[in-house]
Amino acid sequence: LDTHSHVLVQAGPLNFVFAEPSSTVLVYGLGLVLLWAAWRFYRHKKDSRSGQLWALGLLIWAVSTFSAGTSYQAFSYEIKCAGKELCSWTSWWEIWYLALYVLSMNLCAAAVAFSSLTRQARKPLLIYLALMTLAYEGVLFTGALLPQQFMASFECMVLFILPTFLLLFAINLTGYVRRKDPLELRLLLAWVLMALVTAAYFGFLVSGIAERLWAAGIWFNANDVLHIGLIVWVLYLVFRCEPLITDR
Fold first, then answer.
1. What's the pLDDT tens digit per position in 82-114?
2. SS3 letters for 195-227?
3. 154-179 vs 119-145: helix axis angle to the nearest 10?
4. Alpha helices in the chain (DSSP H)
5. Which single residue of 19, 79, 97, 176 could bond 68 by disulfide (Cβ 3.0 to 4.6 Å)?
6. Helix (H, G, I), strand (E, B) or coil at 91
């Protein structure tokens, strides 16, 4: 508890440690923004396969975000530390977050396949996304049950989804060069923005800034950087990409 922001909640029968209040607001805020984005995609684009997949992917991403925020932030002490001599390294809340997040990202990638590729060209990508999802879930749950820390880590998940983002970047770059389609350019910029957000997360993580801020009584860490960046990314997706989404 000395290393994390927290408050002790005591109200009648309730008696628990609420961890990282400011970070919890940000991560649950991201979850709410994702729910709103999923609803907007479904409302405006439900007649297209790409719109349906975006809506489903964003909805599952929202569920994964609430699961992550519950275990990494809000109730991290109660779930992983309370009553134990040593805190647990992870929890099933976090395992399900990773499983659902990769599924959601691959559904969003499938949405791009329908908006950017021809029928023949999209089939190999859809097969790859299905196989990659199965492979990752196998690795993740094997790591959780063994247990093996890296296999059930955020870093391992990033390694699995990195090729997908590179493929999406290449698909939208090629599409824009060939057709000068505004949607291709906006999606291309979305992947650039996602890369910048990820780089900011890892950069802040290794910079030591969070530790210096906490020593001064200010709680702000790499997860906060990530969640603020992702909120901006989702807003960009909704206001700049969603209006142009349609099946090719």
1. 999 999 999 999 999 999 999 999 999 999 999
2. HHHHHHHHHHHHHCHHHHHHHCCCCCCHHHHHH
3. 170
4. 21-45, 49-68, 76-80, 92-116, 119-145, 154-179, 182-207, 209-215, 222-236
5. 97
6. coil
